[in-house]
Amino acid sequence: MKERKPEKGWKNKVHEIIYEADTPMGKWFDILLFILIIISVLLVMLESVKGIDAEYHKTLFILEWVVTIFFTIEYIARIVSIKKPLKYVLSFYGIIDLMATIPLYLSYIFAGSQALLAIRSLRLLRIFRILKLVRFLGEASQLKKALKASRAKITVFLFAVLILSVILGTVMYLIEGDEAGFTSIPTSIYWTIVTLTTVGYGDIAPITPEGQFIATLIMLVGYGVIAVPTGIVTVEFGRQGQGKKSPGDKGYVHLNTQACPACAKEGHRDDAIYCYNCGSKL
Amino acid sequence: MKERKPEKGWKNKVHEIIYEADTPMGKWFDILLFILIIISVLLVMLESVKGIDAEYHKTLFILEWVVTIFFTIEYIARIVSIKKPLKYVLSFYGIIDLMATIPLYLSYIFAGSQALLAIRSLRLLRIFRILKLVRFLGEASQLKKALKASRAKITVFLFAVLILSVILGTVMYLIEGDEAGFTSIPTSIYWTIVTLTTVGYGDIAPITPEGQFIATLIMLVGYGVIAVPTGIVTVEFGRQGQGKKSPGDKGYVHLNTQACPACAKEGHRDDAIYCYNCGSKL
Amino acid sequence: MKERKPEKGWKNKVHEIIYEADTPMGKWFDILLFILIIISVLLVMLESVKGIDAEYHKTLFILEWVVTIFFTIEYIARIVSIKKPLKYVLSFYGIIDLMATIPLYLSYIFAGSQALLAIRSLRLLRIFRILKLVRFLGEASQLKKALKASRAKITVFLFAVLILSVILGTVMYLIEGDEAGFTSIPTSIYWTIVTLTTVGYGDIAPITPEGQFIATLIMLVGYGVIAVPTGIVTVEFGRQGQGKKSPGDKGYVHLNTQACPACAKEGHRDDAIYCYNCGSKL
Amino acid sequence: MKERKPEKGWKNKVHEIIYEADTPMGKWFDILLFILIIISVLLVMLESVKGIDAEYHKTLFILEWVVTIFFTIEYIARIVSIKKPLKYVLSFYGIIDLMATIPLYLSYIFAGSQALLAIRSLRLLRIFRILKLVRFLGEASQLKKALKASRAKITVFLFAVLILSVILGTVMYLIEGDEAGFTSIPTSIYWTIVTLTTVGYGDIAPITPEGQFIATLIMLVGYGVIAVPTGIVTVEFGRQGQGKKSPGDKGYVHLNTQACPACAKEGHRDDAIYCYNCGSKL
């Protein structure tokens, strides 16, 4: 019993540092992780620029190893300090963490697997998690709620836009043909969406008068159509603002960043003693 | 009488399956139709890609026949099972259904009429009808109502934009001329709409300083002008939403009124399995 | 006296037909004018298309003369039937009417003055006047009111955008230079506005990494900035809708299309006996 | 004492003219400064156009000197007439004023430093200060307030867009590669932002089917995403308008353009006797 206790204490401490941000150590760890993720993404970016890679290849390679070693330690610590490691390993963030760590090791086994390093940019998503701590939390959650509330409407809308694009794209393919770049129906649909969304690259553009006429119609339709998602989101924002709840209101509870040591679920009540998800003691 | 009844019953059953969706068979038919329409459109798309058509021509051709035969049976069944067949045949969907069915047959009479297959993409519109069944109906009808209510205003607006485009297009034609691609007034108007709607292909772009100056003015006008349809639709959405009472107004944190059977604490998350207070199973 | 009366009666009748739309004849005249203006603009468009002009030059030329003769008669009738002809001749519409009529005559005196025909597109503005009659009037006036109410705010906004564009354009000129197409500061400012308004032709595009970085910042700024006019107009629309007056309300009077025979001012009350502008009997 | 008083009076008068706009002289000075700043920026623009510079080099050079001399006098007068000159010299506007004045002098010492003249465009920012006097002040401050109130939300939003762009840009780099112009991850991210913001230059555009497919997804995402800042700003504008205060309201005070002679802070109450910032007598 005596042997287990300190070990458990050590694991608990690691868990507190890595998974939570309520202690000073936990905050420092999050800041360090934040910086290292940014650096790791910048490294991948710089390596992709031929000129920079040619000149500073060695420096970049060393830094790459520093980041990889830190990520390896972090990954192992995450597995060790959690009660149900498999749940973490198979979770969304668990898989991303692994994929951000192994490419450099793999590159010694399979040549060219260094390209997988780019997957590391997905680790940026963890930044959203880290930022849960800062004051922007309220704003972000309001944005998220408004977007969630208008999700169904926007889905219906995008679906209608897609069907419209398929029909209009097919029409343009029949009218314009190969010369103007409308080489196939999929390409034609691609062009229609480029036009409807007012992106308008110009890599493909109608050259026949009929094609230009229909393109004009598509643009004017797009003009009215672009108003729809804006309208949906704006109204939703307005609603969020009207019924705004302040921390003093009934039914509003502060959820802290504490993570369950067993299942890593976050968002427990401040006065919670047990995890709401798995029932383990927090 | 005895003879007619079973026949009528058989017709009724077919009618129920094809035109309705309240019976299990009707639902399955709709799902099958949905899938076959998607496949038929994908087939037309794939055939238009030269590389794919060259390699898989035979497979695509067989699938094309499968779809065509199903569509033929469906078309005949629709005519047979309805009381007033002519009304269906001459209806919007009736004409589209026919046009989506016959191209392959026609291709044996008139060479090249296979191009008509592209018309099939119009059958996608039927998907909207099929989707009437699903839960998005509410959202879609709200969207439709808001757009209908703002139709008159948007028509006036588009009309004003068109007149403005003709005038500005003519001015640009006089200023820029052939060199920059403004080869005729219609082309010039096409360019003006491309600019006003902020699509901006760049296939035609002003090169003289005066032309660029006026283009700048057009863009700034377009900046203010693009706000108008958005404003119209947003206000309309807001109005639609005001009289709405729905469970869509999901709160901050989903705390329900469920009480823990062990400690009677309330305010659990909707997805809680265990009590946050005592750890008992809820 | 006997001589003057019928003349005055004749003049009055012509005035009623041309300037007003309450009599059947007046309505028919407006519709005819509407059609002829559209035709005259289409003629100018078609003439500008080289291929069409080469083939149908004679037909277009004859039609051009038909339109010009009608416009000449209309112009003379407008002068004759009004009490103060000079006021009409020097008014905005008077000048446009003249400029739309004379180019063909002038082309016999000055070679090449046929290009002035393009000015005719300005006559399209009269269509707005003609449309005063139709049911869209209410919608259009609401749009106009909302835009007028937000004019001051949008002016401030466009002014700020312009200053921002000058500063950012100058910065891009210093960074990018001639190679990428940023040949002068005005061109650079043109590019900045093309980018800020999200038009993005691509005729000029940054090629250095620093230029692309600043371009990215400009786009993200434009992202936030494009929201401003939309926000202004939307709020204004919302306000217009709230205080909407229906025909039954107090203080709402129906204004007819009757025009004062002396000063041609429109918009008199149904029960008006004297012109509100010059005091002449209606 | 007798000697100092008139000097102080002279300094005070200069201070009133340069820093304030309540006296007729002060107003005239502001108008003159406004015009000269516009001219100075136009001069820099015209010099950057090769054709114009070649022909009118001498005229532009003389005008350049006229502007520079006026700016020099103004700069010295600003320093002399203020009680704490160092505060002005090191202030934001103080540094810009200096940088707008010296390039021509520097060009005699360091060849090519004339390029610094472009910095002068920053002086346009002072126009915002001058315009404080005109009636647009109210509108501008309302715009500013709405933008300030939505700053936090827009920051969160732009941050999310940036992370999304890095991830999507990396994906496009892996898919498209060098051929289509996606030469490095930073370039790829640049392209993603160009697409997400619907600018769409077309200097880089996907050519593989997979790339075009993902580009389509990015555009549709951008479609929904562009609605967010608009929604935020619109709701904020709506709020500003609701609680609008009129000059008669309590708690609304008129702030004049008087500037503190000691610290140059503006925006004092009409009945203020001491500067609210440094406590000096006004």
UniProtKB/TrEMBL annotation, chains A, B, C, D:
<keyword id="KW-0406">Ion transport</keyword>
<feature type="transmembrane region" description="Helical">
    <location>
        <begin position="31"/>
        <end position="49"/>
    </location>
</feature>
<dbReference type="GO" id="GO:0001508">
    <property type="term" value="P:action potential"/>
</dbReference>
<feature type="transmembrane region" description="Helical">
    <location>
        <begin position="92"/>
        <end position="119"/>
    </location>
</feature>
<keyword id="KW-0633">Potassium transport</keyword>
<dbReference type="InterPro" id="IPR005821">
    <property type="entry name" value="Ion_trans_dom"/>
</dbReference>
<dbReference type="GO" id="GO:0008076">
    <property type="term" value="C:voltage-gated potassium channel complex"/>
</dbReference>
<keyword id="KW-1133">Transmembrane helix</keyword>
<protein>
    <submittedName>
        <fullName>Voltage-gated potassium channel</fullName>
    </submittedName>
</protein>
<dbReference type="InterPro" id="IPR028325">
    <property type="entry name" value="VG_K_chnl"/>
</dbReference>
<keyword id="KW-0812">Transmembrane</keyword>
<feature type="domain" description="Ion transport">
    <location>
        <begin position="27"/>
        <end position="241"/>
    </location>
</feature>
<keyword id="KW-0631">Potassium channel</keyword>
<feature type="transmembrane region" description="Helical">
    <location>
        <begin position="154"/>
        <end position="175"/>
    </location>
</feature>
<keyword id="KW-0630">Potassium</keyword>
<keyword id="KW-0851">Voltage-gated channel</keyword>
<feature type="transmembrane region" description="Helical">
    <location>
        <begin position="61"/>
        <end position="80"/>
    </location>
</feature>
<dbReference type="GO" id="GO:0005249">
    <property type="term" value="F:voltage-gated potassium channel activity"/>
</dbReference>
<dbReference type="InterPro" id="IPR027359">
    <property type="entry name" value="Volt_channel_dom_sf"/>
</dbReference>
<keyword id="KW-0472">Membrane</keyword>
<keyword id="KW-0813">Transport</keyword>
<dbReference type="Pfam" id="PF00520">
    <property type="entry name" value="Ion_trans"/>
</dbReference>
<feature type="transmembrane region" description="Helical">
    <location>
        <begin position="213"/>
        <end position="235"/>
    </location>
</feature>
<keyword id="KW-0407">Ion channel</keyword>
